[in-house]
TrEMBL record:
Similarity remark: Belongs to the beta/gamma-crystallin family.
UniProt KW keywords: Eye lens protein, Repeat
The keyword Nucleus appears for this protein: no
Molecular function per GO: structural constituent of eye lens
Gene Ontology BP term (one): visual perception
Record PANTHER family: BETA/GAMMA CRYSTALLIN, GAMMA-CRYSTALLIN D
Span of domain Beta/gamma crystallin 'Greek key': 2-40, 41-83, 130-172
The protein, known as: Beta/gamma crystallin 'Greek key' domain-containing protein
InterPro entries with a match to the protein in the record: Beta/Gamma-Crystallin, Beta/gamma_crystallin, G_crystallin-like
Pfam family, one: Crystall
Amino acid sequence: MGKITFYEDRNFGGRCYECSSDCADLHSYFNRCNSLKVHSGCWMLYEHPNYMGHQYYLKRGEYPDYQKWMGYNDSISSCRMIPEHRGSFRIRLYEKGDFGGQMMDFTEDCPNVYDRFHFNDIHSCHVNDGYWIFYEEPNYRGRQYYLRPGEYRKYSDWGAMSPKIGSFRRVDYI
């Protein structure tokens, strides 16, 4: 079970809302989000309702302003709790859409896709085990994308506007 508290103002001030489950539209609870506390669990926050727009992965901790979670602005409109995964992690990446081109399996975090895969464009993937976060830039920077187990035939299936992936990591509660 996870718990997160959203605050309208920086440094945990103003109106707040406590949440312990997925919420597709947070607009009725607050107008903006300038700080938050993740009390337990791992969460994915979304800029727009219905889990759309910029995504932000957060672990337990305090975030006194939106820049601390690499936010682009104070807009958080939906959230998802990431379930804890016990067991192995496995993801298969493909150079082309519909699982075509070069393929590579991973079971560990990858801080630099180009160093391992020799290109940055990942057009499709299959998440076999665990939950993963893709980042547009190397070393876990830039836009983030949450992937649950399943097939992603094209990069737009995970919410990206381009196939550029610079790094990725497992969602680990430790």
